[in-house]
């Protein structure tokens, strides 16, 4: 056991995978995925974040940090990035892995409250890995209401889904879909959708 823990600590990739797997056992509906996003999916999502945009970049469902890593690599400044994650265990992991970032523990259905004064700066983009299909429908509705309230006209919502047919239009009535492409290199393949607030 000691040797196993030592190997995990020396190998952040393996540690992330082990943690992700444990969280799936604990809460499969909230995790909504069999494994962390691959770098190809994460970098596709991050590439949509405009770097010249005012306001915060909010990542929802940080997990073990696959998309967070891609957002930083893409050039999002750490002071502009806020990560929200529901699981306290994953929040601890994210805080250790990214001490330079603000990581908030809580449910994205209460995003306005979680961001507190921060949302007064405005939100440029939201990058979401939330499993909207597998969450309770009331939670999904509350989250989509938060998107409508917090993203200003012209702002972007970048969301991925394992539903290769894409997100239902009626879930985001105030948004216009500007891109929807499958990333075949993810395991399993996933669709990255980009919505602009009207
Ligand atoms: C599909 S995993 C994605 C993890 C990571 N971003 C990735 O791409 O590998 C979904 C993440 O959303 C988190 N989550 C689920 N429901 C949430 C909610 N209501 N509010 C905040 N985070 C939530 C889960 O704990 C999990 O870490």
Notes on the structure:
- The chain has about 200 residues and is of the alpha/beta class.
- The chain has a single domain (about 1-195), classed as Vaccinia Virus protein VP39 (Rossmann fold, 3-Layer(aba) Sandwich), CATH 3.40.50.150.
- It is about 40% helix and about 25% strand.
- The protein is built from eight helices and seven strands; from the N terminus they run H-H-H-H-E-H-E-H-E-H-E-H-E-E-E.
- Strands 3-2-1-4-5-7-6 form a seven-stranded mixed β-sheet, sandwiched between helices.
- The protein is globular, with a radius of gyration of 16 Å.
- The model has no long low-confidence stretch (mean pLDDT about 90).
- S-adenosylmethionine binds near residues 33, 87 and 90.
- InterPro entries: Methyltransf_25, SAM-dependent_MTases_sf.
- GO terms for molecular function: methyltransferase activity.
- One of its GO terms (biological process) is methylation.
